[in-house]
Amino acid sequence: MADSWAEIAVNLARVREEIRTAALRAGRRPEEITLVAVSKTVPPEGIQAALAAGVTDLGENRVQELLAKQPELPPGLRWHLIGTLQTNKVKYIIDRIHLLHSLDRWELAREISKRASARGLVLKALIQVNVSGEETKHGLAPGDVPVFYREVQELPGLQIEGLMTMAPFVADAEQARPYFRQLRELARELGLKHLSMGMSNDYQVAIEEGATLVRIGSDIFGARR
Ligand SMILES: *Cc1c(COP(=O)(O)O)cnc(C)c1O
Prior knowledge:
- The chain is of the alpha/beta class.
- The protein has a single domain (about 5-220), classed as Alpha-Beta Barrel (TIM Barrel).
- The chain contains nine helices and eight strands.
- An eight-stranded parallel beta sheet has the order 7-6-5-4-3-2-1-8.
- Helix 2 links the parallel strand 1 (about 35-40) and strand 2 (about 55-60).
- The protein binds pyridoxal-5'-phosphate.
- Pyridoxal-5'-phosphate (PLP) binds near residues 82 and 201.
């Protein structure tokens, strides 16, 4: 964790500059890329420092933590749920989040559809894809995504905006490039606009490969304890 919350503004300035230069290298407009500041384990004072430095989008990976923090922070922020969502927790977050990054199974899609429709809402979501095939990672196998997408598209109350992946943890971010490229290709085939890919260790490469949302935690808030 950052030793002083003042470091957060400095870190953010550096991350934004990296995002900008990665975008320009790839011939993209920096404004196409949304920085999701991953605030898991960061207390509200730390998040306040990020908000003061202009952060508008926060990412949390646990429902309980997101629900506990939300009332402590100003309204109008965009909250992203980036971690696995248990089906029995859908009811708590259905009207609390801007985007779900981790739609990974039919049962979850059906529960979202049921809860959202009952309240006249539409939840925006990304399908999580396990491009690396690592057993420890969540997400659908790439080959299963087209049929899954076609089926969940029919559900009311749920709107699929794109795909999300976590690349394998590699020593050199370059090694993550093929996974990002594969996700972009899949999104292109399906006509999907958003790509949530890239974390502290690999977001520059992810942006070069088309990321529209990057999820960055430790590069902003410091290493998690
Ligand atoms: C924690 C987390 C991140 C951010 O990781 P950093 O390496 O701290 O940038 C991004 N995505 C998901 C799904 C996470 O759980």
